[in-house]
Amino acid sequence: MKHPLIRQIDLTSKKHPFLNCYSTFLFLFLVQAIFGSWMFSSSLIWLLALPQAALTLFLILKPQHSDNINLPVILTLVTIAGCVSPLIRVFELQSESPEWFLWLFVVAQLIMIWESMSSWSRINTDHKPLLGNIINLIVPFLFGASLIYIWEILTVGFNVPQILLPSPHLIALAFAKSTSVLWADFQQTFVKAVLSGYLMGCGSGFLVAILIDRVPFLQKGLLPLGNLVSALPIVGVAPIMVMWFGFDWQSKAAVVVIMTFFPMLVNTLTGIASTGHMERDLMYSYASNYSQSLLLLRLPNALPFIFNALKINSTLALIGAIVAEFFGTPIVGMGFRISIEVGRMNVDVVWATITVAALSGSLFYALIALCERRLTSWHPSLRKN
Predict the structure, then answer these.
(1) In contact, 322 and 335? CB cutoff 8 Å
(2) pLDDT tens digit string along 48-97?
(3) Closest residue by Cα to residue 328 from 336, 318, 319
(4) CATH annotation of 175-377
(5) What span, in angstroms and rounded, lies between the C-alpha atoms of 158 and 85?
(6) Local structure of residue 232 (DSSP, 8 states)
(7) Do 290 and 178 meet the contact criterion of CB atoms below 8 Å apart?
(8) Taking the domains of the chain in order of start, what are their residue ranges?
(9) What's the whole-model pTM score?
(10) 330 Cα distance to chain centroid
(11) How far from the centroid of its chain's Cα atoms is residue 19's Cα?
């Protein structure tokens, strides 16, 4: 039974249809179509925008069930077509400012983007795992695409200077022109510095955690030292590492080791110590020694903590390597590319490099999260209701 306040909201929304997203969109569409003229500047613009208005009118007159898979598909397609129409007009005007009725239509499009994502989220996927996985990919993709759309239409429509914020299509062009350079930067920073430093830092942190667990008095000596090292500012450590290990990727890997060591150490120790007394007493009753108890009970129990450290370190490693490249590097690397292209006022290349860093970091994090899901499926946080 619904709460009285919820029932009142439902009745209010039935009495006042303009509280509905579709009605709001249709109202804004009619206002800008009656008083504005930008939509009639091209037949293509009108043909792209008209199906969206027709669909919203149909949904107002004949509401559909939320579990209908056809609704979000059709709604998403017509919303994409509607979003293209103001972009065409903005690119036609070039340096001229569009009329404000176009921005009213953009606001209406944002409402429909929100509704299309909501329609995907309302689909019941309790007994459809494949459909649930597809929707879990579609909704974040639509959200990211909507942010890029807002970025594009605002920067182009308001003629934002490229040196302040280039539009996404200029960044894409710079990415396409600099593919070979960005690939070399990716290899230098991510493949050589990040991966090697990540493996050494996480591996050493894990081994030292096992050593501290085996020799308890080391906990009082090594943990405060590790706390001190983790508090060191990266901008202070990076120049020292460059002086010690040279200008190549080895110095950046050393910075990554320093940044990833302590999170792995602390999380592994916490995970090993989280084993309950009943489980340890059970292993003791089986006459298991330290190694057997560690391998069969304590380390499996610590896997969620270990993967938590691995995910945190996946982002810290990339940040550390890029920042370290600002303090000395060969003529290749993401940090070098950002610093040198900013000086040349090639901000689009800078954003293309940032895109490469973001994509590589996100994919690396996703790979670790996928391994975590496979290896710790028994954990309550990963169980489905």
Answers:
(1) yes
(2) 888 888 888 888 877 766 666 788 888 889 999 888 988 888 888 876 77
(3) 336
(4) 1.10.3720.10
(5) 17
(6) S
(7) no
(8) 4-160, 175-377
(9) 0.79
(10) 30
(11) 32
